[in-house]
Amino acid sequence: MEIERGRRSRRRNRVLIASVAGAAVLGGVLVLLPWDGGDASPPAPGPAALARGAVTTGVPAALPDLAVLIGERERHLRAQPLDGPSWAVLGAAYVEQGRRTADVAMWAKAEKALHTSLKVGAERNPQALEGLAALAVARRDFPAAKKWGESAVKAAPKRWTAHAVLIDAYTGLGDDKGVGRALEKIMELRPDAPATGARAAAVYRDRGWREDAQARISDAAAAAEAPAERAAYLEQAGRLAFERGEREEALRFFQESLRTDPDQRAAQAGQARTLAALGRTTDALSAYQAALAKRPDAEYALELGELYESLGLGQAARVQYDLLRERVRDAEAAGADERLLLGRFEADHGDPARAVRLLREEWGRQPGIAVADALGWALHRTGEHEEALEFATIATDGDKGGGVRSALYVFHRGVIERELERYGPARRHLREALMINPYFSPLRAPEARRALDELGEPSVEDPPA
Q1: 219-237 mean pLDDT
Q2: Residue 69 near residue 51, CB atoms below 8 Å
Q3: FRET pair for 37, CA 20 to 30 Å: which of 192, 215, 369, 408?
C-alpha cells in the first residue's frame, strides 16, 4: 500500500508540473484576447502595481517589479511625506526585497518606513503593524513578531494576512496551538486562496502530515497566477519532495520553479542540494555558487561548506564557513537573532561549548522545535548526553510537539542514544532517519550508515525501544 501511495504521489507531481507549465503558456495566450469592454484595451497593470498587489496581499512578488515599486513609492513620499499608507507599502516592499535577496540593509529601511507609517498614518494601521510583524519574522525575532502580529489582528480581525504572519511567529515560539488557531482563521477567511494552501502545507509538514502537505502545495502551485507566486510554491513542493528522499521529483520542481522565475534563488539552492544527492557533484557546486552569488544566504554557505567537507576539500569548506560568519555578523548588526544558525554551525564545525551557550539563550527566548534539536545536538557534542536526549526527544516526539518527520532530527536522536548505550532505540532511529530521506546530508547520511553497520544486528541484550 505504501509503495502504491508513493506511485500515486509521483504521478500527481508529474501532472502538477505539466499543468503549471501549461498554465503559464495559457496565461500568455489569454492576455492577447480582445477586451469586450469597448474599443479601448484595458490598461495592463505595470510592475509597480503588480508588486504592490503582491506585498499587500501576502504573496511573493517578482524582484524586478519590487524594485520598480520601491523606486516609485520613494519618489512619491519625497513629495507626499505624510502619506501613511504609502509608507506601509514601502516598508512591506523593503521586507520582501530583503527576504528575497538576503540583503539585511533593507531591514533598517523597512523599520523606519513602517514606524513612520504608524506615526503619520491613521490611528488604526494594521498594514504597518503587519509589516513590522513580517520584519520581525525575517529577523527571527518571534516574540516581537507575535506582539506586532497580534496588534494587527486586533486592529483588523478579518485581515487574513495578519493571521498568516502569526503562523510564523507561533511556529518560532513552539506554540503549536497558536499555529492551529491562526491557520483555522486564514482558512475561514480565504479558504480557496493559493497562499492559504501554501500556509497549510507548511503547517502540515511540521506536524508530519506529509501526504496532506504535498496535496495542499500541489494545489496552491497549480492555482497560482503570478509567476513569482507560482515559483515560490513550486520551490516549497521541491523541498517537501526532497525531505521525502524523492530526488528526481524534487529536482523537477526546483527546475520548474527556476523556469517560472529565474530569481527564485531558494529553488536554485534546492536544485544544488538535490544534484548533490544524485551524485552530480560538479553541477551541484555550480548551482550553489550561482545561488550564493545572487543571494548570499548564510544557510546556503553552510550547506555548500558541508558539501565541500564531504568531498575532502577542507580549504574550500573553510571559505564558506568564513562567509557564514560574515553574513551572521551582518545580520546581527541589522537586528537579527542568528543564535540558532550560529549554534548549529559551532556544534559541528567550531566550538560546541559556545553552541550550547547560544542555544540555551535561544531556547529561553523562543523555544521552537528547531532549537530543541540544535540544543540537544550541541549538548551531545559537549558530552552532556542525558540532557541532550531530553531535547532530542522534544524535537522528534509528536506528543511533545516534534511531529515533523526530519531525517536530521531523528539521526541526532539515534546518535545520542547510541552514546548512552541504548542500542535498540539507537538502531531504530538511525534506520528511520535513512528511511525518511537516505540523502538528507552529504556529511551525516554516510555517518548514519556507518553507525548502523557498527551497531550490527539486534541483540537479545539490547534494551527495548
Answers
A1: 97
A2: yes
A3: 192
